[in-house]
Design a protein that fits this description.
Endonuclease I-creI, 3 domains, 4-stranded antiparallel sheet, 8 strands
Length: 253
């Protein structure tokens, strides 16, 4: 196994016209690996829009705000599955009740990979917004075998920088995937008569403690007070915090 910097250095020398043998001696990379990278990886990176992550470029995705939202959607209701020839499919499942959310999801995917087509696969009561690319695991390194709540979920430093810069988009994506805004009610005696009081609140539900922590840590950074209702539910009910959420997130649409 070779790290990304070694791969970039070796391929740069090959592009200069150096022989595989001389590059192998200088970098310590086997000639078999050099041939494999040069014949398989190089054409992929030249075709279409290259992936900024697997090229090792320090620049974030072209639209980091849209990516922060898409990251929230992916952690909530998304999955990545491998297809043939190194192609991966990203699927975000959206309820049919929220057509605006479906449109926003498609727009975010297009922002992440502008040269890849996006389709909507209708299912019973929902739509799977889907796009294929060889580079989804580069953009979502949380991809891995098994369910998200059964493995560690942590952001890479470059992802955390994007979330820090666009925390509300990340919160919005998480709420749009695994959250909701509801209206609670209660009764109180006023001058001996029962009076109905209604108040809004937000809930976020997820089985992964890591994803729950990413959500609450981001709420802390934007000044939203929250409580853990149970092991898989976060509640936001304070009036000022609900007002903040209404301003930046709002109900699904």
């Amino acid at each position: 196994m070779y790290d990304m910097s070694t791969r970039r250095q070796a391929l740069a020398l090959v592009r200069q016209g150096r022989s595989m043998n001389s590059v192998s001696k200088e970098t310590g990379v086997s000639r078999a690996s050099l041939r494999s990278w040069h014949t398989r990886i190089e054409p992929l990176q030249r075709a279409g829009k290259p992936c900024p992550r697997c090229q090792g470029a320090p620049a974030p995705p072209e639209n980091p705000r849209a990516y922060a939202y898409l990251l929230g959607l992916y952690l909530g209701d998304g999955c990545i599955s491998a297809h043939r020839r190194g192609v991966y499919a990203l699927r975000i499942v959206c309820d049919n009740a929220w057509p605006g959310l479906i449109d926003a999801c498609e727009a975010a995917i297009r922002s992440a990979r502008p040269d890849n087509s996006v389709c909507r696969v209708k299912k019973d009561g929902c739509v799977a917004v889907t796009a294929t690319s060889k580079h989804w695991p580069c953009l979502f390194p949380q991809h891995g075998p098994g369910k998200k709540h059964e493995r560690t979920i942590a952001l890479d430093p470059w992802q955390q920088e994007i979330v820090d810069a666009h925390p509300w988009e990340f919160v919005r994506g998480l709420i749009h995937s695994d959250g909701c805004r509801i209206t609670n009610w209660t009764t109180r005696l006023v001058k001996g008569q029962p009076k109905l009081y209604e108040y809004p609140r937000y809930f976020f539900t997820n089985s992964s403690s890591d994803i729950m922590r990413l959500f609450t840590d981001t709420l802390d950074t934007v000044g939203v007070e929250w409580k853990q209702a149970n092991w898989r539910n976060i509640s936001v009910a304070r009036r000022a915090s609900v007002a903040l959420m209404d301003t930046h997130v709002g109900p699904k649409y």
